[in-house]
From TrEMBL:
GO biological process terms, semicolon-separated: methylation; sterol biosynthetic process
UniProt biased composition (Low complexity): 347-379, 388-398
Family statement: Belongs to the class I-like SAM-binding methyltransferase superfamily. Erg6/SMT family.
SAM-dependent methyltransferase Erg6/SMT-type domain mapped to chain residues: 73-280
Cellular component annotations (GO), alphabetically ordered: endoplasmic reticulum
Ranges where the record places region Disordered: 1-29, 295-321, 343-399, 492-527
GO-annotated molecular function: sterol 24-C-methyltransferase activity
Protein name listed in UniProt: SAM-dependent methyltransferase Erg6/SMT-type domain-containing protein
Keywords from the UniProt entry: Methyltransferase, S-adenosyl-L-methionine, Transferase
Amino acid sequence: MASGRQSSREVETEAEAETDKTLANIEPEPDKTFANIVSAYTSRFGQNDDQTTVTEEQRTKRQTAAAELADSYYDFASTAYENGWSTHFHYTPFAPHDTIQSALAFYEHRLALLMGLRPGMKVLDVGCGIGGPAREIAKFVGCEVVGVTINQAQVDRAIYLTALEGLSGKCTFVKADFLNLPFAPSSFDAAYAIEATVHSPSLQKVYTNIWRVLKPGAVFGLSEWVMTEKFDPLDPKHIGIRNRLERGNGLCNLHTSEQARAAMIGTGFDVFHDEDYAQHFAWLSAKRGNGDGNGTDIRLYNHNHNHDHTSQNEQHQLQQHHHHIYLDSPVLVPFLADPIPAHPVHQATTTSPSSSQSQSSPATKRTTTNASTSYSSSSLNLRPAPPSSTSTSNSTPSRLIPPHRNWWWPLEGNTAQATTWTDYFTAWKMSKWPRRICYAVLWTLERLGVADRGTCAAMTTLAYCVDSAVEGGREGIFTPCWWFIGRKGGEENREGEEEGGGGGGGGGGELKEGSEQNILYYTSMDR
């Protein structure tokens, strides 16, 4: 018996020793205190203030740890985004009388309409943040949205906010790396990514993962952060702005619009909409005589146009460049109450909502009308068109034309352009003196041990986030929302789905030659 008890104790001792040995070989998880999170993030970037001495070696190291970089960034930035901006983690252009919230919602509604989302679809939100766009699109369309994000805190917050709105049955959220999406092939009817895939070290890799989980014929709507064609990689000023954008936003490698376009096409998406949405209302600036006259850069693909039915002035607007057609005009139709002009790209007869109807209530309205097409095209999405020639003619006094507001006006603290007190406060918080006072208070509290260590370092990072976006916007070398909307192959499947309606495939709002179709016109007060 004694020998047996001794053997048992020996076994227990050996087991404990083996456990201790195993634990000793396991690398302990880093202490996720606020200070360590911020320190882990900032250590991946250069320490000089202007960020002009960033080396390619540093950028390469960030690319190998892109997921960890984004995860650590949102561990401290998400709360600041939500409290200082919105639950919708993206920027937006502004109509003359938009609030920040209505502009963000219009952005998401417009993307959903251009993608042709319909009730009953299962839609993937790639890089969902805390679920603001997912909830808005689910309410607007009536579809099911599955959001993925690399950050567990964002997943938890998204689930909580979604439950508050009673949308848990429509929106679900998953912690996942969008370079390795945990879904079976052909799982989704559509997908969108709103200013999120910029965190990927390789755009084509993330687009390929999205391609894999989409059904044949499904539409992918992408809004990408890019450096524009004006970016000069040899200009030290431009280099500094790009580096500060990366430093302030958790980015490993900020790409150009041409690189994003090439990645979309290289992945195999048939891109049918290509636009710098940040310049959506830039025509207002040109009409008032304080712009360069360049409207939205819109590119329409693979369509034949009959120039016999166009005036010389209209023909002059169509400038051929390879397979692109450039229109120096904003995207207005079908998202305004203005009539669709007779134009070769979308010649349509329609009865639009009257201006009195569109201004009768601040609430957003939707009016459905019939449009008949009279152009030759095998398949044409309802496209952006120039404004009506009578709505903003050159004879209109500039004082009667609403002022143009750049997409970055809240970020530069321009309180004069706020349309509500809420927006005034949002812009005021980002102006110079409130930020300086806030930093001084936090610095004192951090030294006294009241605020977490690393708070001031986090605020410095967020200052890079805001200031670099303003710099890039002013220089015209950066846009936060270049839109590419493309379709995965499988047109034969798509036609069958359109005839039956309902899920699968993605709509795109196509009109066919000689056909009539109900078009959803989206109008709101003062638009």
